[in-house]
Q: What sequence folds into this?
């Protein structure tokens, strides 16, 4: 008998994009990797093979058709520097230049500063939609990190707009569609322009927070036209995955009856976050392309083919994680599998530590407000690239 949390996680995928879920899960039945000629795609379901691919920048690239890097290039410009569509030395230099903004002490401070307003008015006796809360929190934090000041009179409208635009753009990603249509590209370019219009005002402001990303880029002499693609990409990366993961992990905590135990034992929260991120795998697929033909463990990957790293399959596989769908607060992770939901290699998620700080802050505040919550209303999202809930309302018993 499957648990309630397991049922909802599976049902969520079926409801969201059933054909994609069927193809993706079926690929898991054919071993470590399978090639689908129809859309020239390799499906990789083995975590060790996936790690090798992600570490091999000589033969594989993130900026391939069907992935976020390619989509960014098609919409924002092929030469626009935006991390996801970059490789080699230029990618490394840009990533290193941003590392100072992602220093742990600063991250803890900025998370508390930016997210506290979202919890200031919540009362324990009120119902709250965690989907709405998570979108506001992630958008608020992304804006704060960039340097888009909350003192601006339209800031509350801004964070709502950022959330909506991020949702709209990432809906264009699909495992069944390799290339965006002309209609999709035009729509994406319109979204990108709206993002740029929002950011440009802040970029030219003389009153930027000292440690913000915009401030750092301006200090390095980067003008707005060269920075805008990166800034929009950071907003999207900083909002979509965490915004979808937070309610899902909360639902798992409640459905598995672990919420109260975690509230009383805060030292278990890091393990709970790892388990939650592993089970939900908020970005279920990492898309790469084959730059040069190569053979790994007897499997040949041919040039110009697409590779789908199926995190959804491998992170829920009993061969790698015993009783993989169990939310186990005592699980010990093999070192090579730890944090694999954030990727590996040169494109390991720059905001991984920020995501953990952000989720920790949100749950700590929710634990203090909702001691014994139950789910009042639960709706799955439809036709989104990152499966999740469209509504998850809780209240105290």
A:
């Amino acid at each position: 008998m499957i648990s309630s949390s397991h049922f909802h996680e599976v049902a969520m995928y079926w409801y969201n994009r059933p054909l994609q879920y069927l193809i993706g899960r079926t690929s898991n039945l054919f071993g470590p990797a399978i090639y689908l000629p129809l859309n020239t795609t390799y499906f990789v379901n083995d975590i060790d093979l996936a790690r090798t691919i992600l570490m091999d920048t000589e033969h594989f690239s993130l900026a391939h058709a069907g992935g976020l890097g390619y989509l960014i290039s098609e919409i924002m410009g092929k030469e626009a520097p935006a991390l996801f569509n970059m490789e080699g030395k230029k990618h490394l230099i840009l990533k290193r230049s941003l590392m100072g903004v992602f220093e742990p002490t600063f991250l803890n401070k900025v998370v508390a500063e930016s997210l506290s307003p979202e919890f200031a008015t919540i009362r324990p006796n009120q119902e709250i939609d965690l989907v709405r809360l998570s979108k506001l929190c992630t958008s608020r934090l992304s804006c704060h990190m960039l340097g888009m000041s909350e003192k601006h009179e339209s800031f509350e409208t801004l964070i709502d707009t950022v959330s909506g635009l991020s949702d709209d753009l990432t809906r264009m990603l699909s495992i069944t569609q390799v290339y965006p249509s002309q209609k999709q590209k035009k729509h994406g370019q319109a979204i990108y322009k709206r993002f740029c219009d929002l950011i440009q005002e802040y970029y030219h402001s003389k009153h930027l927070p000292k440690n913000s990303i915009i401030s750092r880029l301006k200090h390095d002499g980067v003008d707005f036209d060269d920075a805008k693609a990166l800034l929009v990409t950071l907003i999207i990366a900083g909002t979509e995955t965490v915004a979808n993961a937070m309610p899902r992990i909360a639902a798992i905590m409640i459905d598995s009856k672990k919420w109260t135990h975690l509230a009383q034992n805060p030292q278990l929260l890091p393990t709970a976050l790892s388990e939650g991120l592993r089970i939900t795998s908020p970005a279920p697929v990492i898309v790469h392309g084959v730059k040069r033909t190569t053979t790994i463990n007897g499997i040949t990957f041919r040039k110009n083919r697409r590779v789908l790293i199926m995190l959804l399959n491998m992170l829920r596989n009993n061969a790698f994680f015993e009783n993989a769908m169990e939310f186990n607060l005592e699980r010990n992770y093999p070192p090579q599998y730890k944090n694999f939901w954030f990727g590996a290699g040169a494109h390991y998620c720059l905001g991984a530590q920020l995501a953990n700080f952000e989720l920790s802050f949100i749950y700590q505040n929710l634990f203090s407000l909702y001691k014994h919550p139950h789910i009042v209303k639960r709706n799955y999202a439809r036709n989104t690239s990152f499966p999740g809930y469209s509504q998850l309302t809780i209240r105290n018993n």
